[in-house]
Amino acid sequence: MSIAENLIAITSELPQHVTLVAVSKTWPVDDIMQAYGTGHRVFGENKIQEMSEKQDAMPKDTQWHMIGHVQTNKVKLMASYVTLIHGVDSLKLLEEIDKQAKKNSRTIDCLLQMHIAAEDTKFGLDESELEALVNNNAFKNLKNVKVTGLMGMATFTNDENQIRKEFTQLKSIYDRFQVVSTENCAFKILSMGMSGDYKIAIECGSTMVRIGSSIFGRR
Q1: pLDDT (tens digit per residue) in 35-85
Q2: H or E segment at 185?
Q3: CA distance 191 to 159
Q4: What integer is the mean pLDDT of 151-167?
Q5: What are 64's strand-pairing partners?
Q6: Domain residues for 117?
Q7: Which position among 41, 60, 80, 135 has the lowest Cβ density within 10 Å, counted as fewest Cβ atoms?
């Protein structure tokens, strides 16, 4: 099937409350435009430089999500246009996003990345670090960022029980912190699930899935 056909098939299966981020990293603009041609507008990239080049070439109503690990020195390259930053895992990074958003007269939406996988290679906060962050006065004083939810990645495994357990754990953390509502923090997005596990993620309460290979194919 074509990119457009893959995307239409997946979109038709998703519940209405679930947002699909089409992960376009490493794919050229011509391929992304095939997806865009179906009416899809939300794309995810994991390298800021590559995302910025594509942003210049794509129609201006495209929404760009930064789904990779973010280095503070690169934030300025995307601050003028990025729609949502998924992988925020420190107050230091939030402070830099706030600073660059202010320079661009915008507020940038962010998700806090939680570490739920059994693998040490994944980035993210644990529950006590999340609690410390959202209760920190320095965080509460940030005016140009808005934390709109949580993101997490399950262990890369064929064990569906383990994946389900990790997603359920993240959903329970999300539910606990959903009561936090300040000017710069109001949870409405739970981003979990990729091509291999998004159906389990949705069963466990995900409201945003990141799907690449099932749309664009494998490299």
Answers
A1: 999 999 999 999 999 999 999 999 999 999 999 999 999 999 999 999 999
A2: strand 185-191
A3: 20
A4: 95
A5: 43
A6: 3-216
A7: 60
